[in-house]
């Protein structure tokens, strides 16, 4: 056989080039070739190079539409044969089709080498990829070669099917963008050399890149050619890969940038200006026209600014960064325009609120009109909700509202009513997040939400009512109803309202709804390209995850929020995220890391909004407790209480600081102070009753009660907390109950609760709390070693068999109970012995909880206790002084 190309260099794994251009390797030398390269790099030319004599070449071109249909590409490679009575049916999951195609490929291989070429393989259907892998594995000694061509942006490195195919021993990855294949000549020079001999082709290519259209009349007019000539040149550009088949972007951005780089700056400006006029006359999509206008140095036509404003307004609905880019250009064209500065500030609110605050403040002195000034002040207020407490924001908003009322007169128009409602709701939002001004909010907003003009204002006022109702600690259902009204509506502009509604749902124990709302909000802002709003949503998401016992997930979301924030001063995101990470660090015995993470936040102290300030002070108290600095922990808890009380917040669900303080005061011998705090907390818990607050109140009462009455209180707390999303407080109750029962002499019952607490705290990832449980369990005579830890690694089937065996059931009885064979019982028991590190059946009773048979009258029941399966570290709310029962 005559080879098509030179023999590949096996020592380097590369393919030699002919005249500086890469060529496909010989079929017998390489089994799989993956070609990747952007348009214009010669990928199509390489694939269509004639093969050597005797080589059968079969090609297929994949499309996005065909990616969902099984064997689309395979049937292009091997078209169906017109044989009567034969039809390939994939009713068995495609197995028959695979065998049928395999036999046909073997038939072709009998006549000589075969090369299968798949273009745009990133759109290849999964069934064809599985068939190619199947074919390669069974034709290792036959002259078969599979060539896959993909776009760089669609590189299949993460696709397991591609990974399987590329796992073939004889494989080669050919990157046409790599320097060794592009040569020493820069790519733009190669493109210029390619087009230099055909000036008309160059003009058409540049015109297509500027217009991003393939209309022959439009492209020809910009290139100065008749439509007939433009059609022929466009066909040539398609064949060379410079122009693709994508309607929205026929010239890829990288290729377009290189084509435009061939022109001088002045020439490019003239071309873009002509293109802008042509697109405007042709009534082209405003987004495409805006992209051309953004390239112009001078926007000297009035219609240009109008089109850009229209494009920015449309882009803001789905692509915030694009809107920011357009408004930035508009402000550069009108640097003294306050409206342009305010429009840019509005677009930046969810992208970079710090920059939005700067532009809004710069617009204030230039705003002579009351309405423009009100818009600028609203931007200042909304940015302040994210960047942190802005002392002047409430005063600016109040002054703007009074000025706007005077301007609007006694019969304001609809536009003025909407703007007044926007200013009023922004003022109320700034007041409710700042602790010192919270007490003035209720007098402003009334007892129930009033009908206001404007969707965003309605959302914001509903969120303010939800927060104030929750802070007052009186109507759980009413607060939850307001929060759901906010979350049931689409997000309008800023995300402050749904974020506050999410916090209210968390306070009402509706953590499922809070998790759904936070995650949905984070994904919404991610899709819109708004990193700041996404970071704030992820920080809130992390807080909810921490409360419900998902420690790993909370860590992931908090670190993601910090990554999105980067160096930006996005207080609401960075403060919450740092606090959550510090809480997790302190609960996992990384005290120094926890304290280091809180230093920067502690310096700003009272500047933080109410929610973030309480979070940060509480995290400092927890870190101090685990560092065994109990006096400092009490001092920080006292500060936390003062901040909450000064804000007028009466809900016990806002923070668990009071439970930690009561228990720690009792342990430090300051019982009179603890009883005073307990009376206040119990009254608040009666008014704001949820399973979590009821269980916490019983825990606090039990910590100050004599041993004889403690058990009943702690059992009641456990019963309440089992119905609440507060797994950490369940551990605290188990630990306190286990210690109390040990002191009362009931060690058997104590071990059961201590083991449950130890396993649960291990599963949540609270290592310090788990150590407390382990120490108390050891003093109660319980097992704490590897056997107990390994018990959680049993599968559900192994655990069921082991529990029945621990209860005294025989293998036959277990098989009848679980409806499995005796051999299956023996198999599960053998695995259980190995995992638990035991050799005898009777050792199970000390490790797993016995389970009696339900299909016989009597069953031996040896009492033993063991934990449920501990999974990987999950999350929960911060462990703190409430564990200090050791």
From TrEMBL:
HTH luxR-type domain location: 787-852
Molecular function terms from GO: DNA binding
Superkingdom classification of source: Bacteria
Region (Disordered): 1-22, 853-886
Record field: compositional bias (Low complexity): 854-866, 875-886
Keyword Electron transport: no
One Pfam assignment: AAA_16
Protein name: LuxR family transcriptional regulator
Organism per entry: Dactylosporangium siamense
């Amino acid at each position: 056989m005559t080879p098509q190309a030179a023999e590949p260099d096996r020592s380097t794994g590369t393919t030699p080039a002919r005249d500086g251009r890469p060529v496909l390797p010989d079929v017998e030398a390489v089994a799989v070739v993956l070609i990747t390269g952007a348009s214009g790099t010669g990928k199509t030319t390489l694939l269509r190079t004639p093969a050597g004599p005797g080589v059968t070449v079969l090609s297929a071109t994949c499309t996005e539409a065909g990616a969902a249909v099984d064997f689309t590409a395979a049937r292009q490679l091997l078209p169906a044969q017109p044989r009567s009575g034969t039809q390939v049916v994939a009713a068995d999951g495609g197995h028959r089709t695979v065998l049928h195609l395999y036999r046909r490929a073997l038939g072709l291989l009998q006549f000589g080498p075969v090369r299968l070429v798949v273009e745009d393989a990133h759109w290849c259907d999964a069934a064809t990829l599985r068939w190619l892998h199947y074919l390669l594995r069974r034709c290792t000694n036959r002259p078969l070669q599979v060539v896959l061509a993909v776009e760089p942006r669609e590189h299949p490195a993460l696709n397991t099917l591609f990974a399987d195919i590329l796992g073939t021993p004889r494989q080669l990855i050919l990157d046409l963008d790599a320097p060794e294949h592009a040569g020493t000549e820069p790519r733009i020079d190669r493109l210029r050399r390619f087009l230099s001999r055909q000036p008309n082709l160059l003009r058409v290519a540049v015109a297509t890149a500027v217009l991003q259209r393939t209309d022959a009349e439009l492209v020809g007019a910009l290139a100065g050619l008749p439509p007939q000539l433009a059609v022929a040149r466009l066909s040539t550009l398609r064949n060379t890969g410079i122009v693709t088949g994508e309607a929205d972007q026929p010239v890829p951005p990288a290729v377009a940038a290189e084509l435009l780089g061939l022109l001088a700056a002045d020439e490019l400006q003239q071309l873009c200006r002509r293109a802008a006029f042509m697109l405007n006359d042709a009534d082209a999509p405003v987004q495409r026209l805006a992209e051309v206008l953004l390239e112009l140095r001078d926007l000297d036509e009035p219609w240009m600014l109008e089109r850009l404003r229209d494009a920015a307004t449309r882009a803001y609905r789905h692509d915030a960064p694009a809107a920011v880019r357009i408004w930035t250009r508009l402000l550069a064209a009108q640097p003294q325009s306050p409206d342009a500065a305010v429009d840019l500030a509005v677009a930046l609110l969810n992208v970079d609120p710090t920059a939005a605050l700067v532009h809004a403040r710069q617009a204030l002195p230039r705003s002579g009109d009351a309405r423009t000034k009100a818009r600028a002040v609203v931007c200042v207020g909304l940015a302040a909700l994210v960047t942190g407490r802005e002392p002047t924001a409430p005063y600016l908003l109040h002054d703007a509202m009074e000025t706007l009322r005077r301007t609007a007169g006694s019969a304001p128009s609809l536009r003025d009513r909407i703007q007044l409602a926007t200013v009023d709701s922004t003022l109320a939002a700034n007041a409710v997040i700042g602790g010192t001004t919270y007490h003035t909010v209720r007098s402003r907003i009334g007892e129930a939400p009033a009908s206001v003009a404007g969707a965003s204002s309605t959302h914001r006022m509903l969120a303010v009512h939800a927060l104030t109702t929750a802070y007052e600690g009186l109507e759980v259902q009413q607060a939850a109803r307001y929060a759901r009204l906010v979350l049931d509506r689409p997000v309008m502009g800023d995300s402050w309202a749904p974020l506050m509604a999410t916090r209210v749902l968390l306070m009402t124990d509706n953590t499922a709804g809070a998790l759904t709302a936070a995650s949905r909000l984070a994904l919404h802002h991610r899709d819109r390209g708004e990193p700041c709003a996404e970071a704030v949503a992820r920080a809130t998401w992390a807080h909810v995850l921490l409360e419900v016992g998902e420690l790993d997930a909370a860590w992931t979301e908090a670190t993601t929020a910090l990554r999105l924030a980067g160096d930006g001063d996005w207080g609401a995101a960075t403060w919450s995220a740092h606090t959550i990470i510090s809480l997790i660090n302190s609960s996992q015995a990384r005290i120094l890391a926890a304290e280091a993470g809180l230093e920067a936040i502690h310096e700003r102290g009272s500047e933080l909004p109410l929610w973030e300030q309480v979070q940060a002070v509480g995290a400092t108290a927890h870190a101090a407790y685990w560092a065994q600095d109990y006096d400092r922990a009490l001092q920080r808890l006292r500060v936390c209480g003062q901040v909450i009380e000064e804000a007028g917040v009466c809900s016990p669900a806002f923070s668990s600081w009071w439970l930690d303080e009561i228990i720690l005061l009792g342990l430090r011998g300051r019982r009179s102070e603890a009883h005073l705090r307990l009376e206040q907390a119990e009254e608040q818990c009666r008014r704001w009753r949820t399973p979590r607050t009821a269980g916490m109140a019983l825990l606090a009462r039990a910590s100050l009660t004599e041993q004889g009455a403690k058990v009943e209180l702690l059992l009641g707390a456990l019963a309440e907390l089992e119905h609440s999303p507060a797994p950490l407080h369940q551990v605290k109750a188990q630990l306190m109950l286990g210690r109390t029962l040990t002191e009362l002499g009931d060690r058997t019952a104590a071990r059961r609760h201590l083991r449950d607490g130890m396993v649960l705290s291990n599963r949540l990832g609270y290592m310090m709390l788990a150590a407390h449980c382990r120490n108390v369990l050891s003093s109660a005579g319980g097992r704490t070693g590897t056997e107990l830890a390994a018990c959680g690694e049993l599968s559900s089937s192994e655990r069921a068999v082991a529990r029945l065996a621990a209860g005294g059931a025989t293998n036959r009885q277990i098989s009848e109970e679980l409806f499995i064979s005796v051999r299956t019982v023996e198999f599960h028991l053998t695995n259980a012995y190995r995992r638990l590190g035991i050799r005898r059946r009777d050792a199970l009773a000390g490790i797993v909880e016995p389970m009696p048979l339900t299909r016989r009258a009597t069953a031996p029941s040896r009492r033993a206790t063991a934990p449920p399966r501990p999974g990987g570290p999950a999350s929960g709310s911060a462990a703190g002084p409430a564990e200090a029962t050791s």
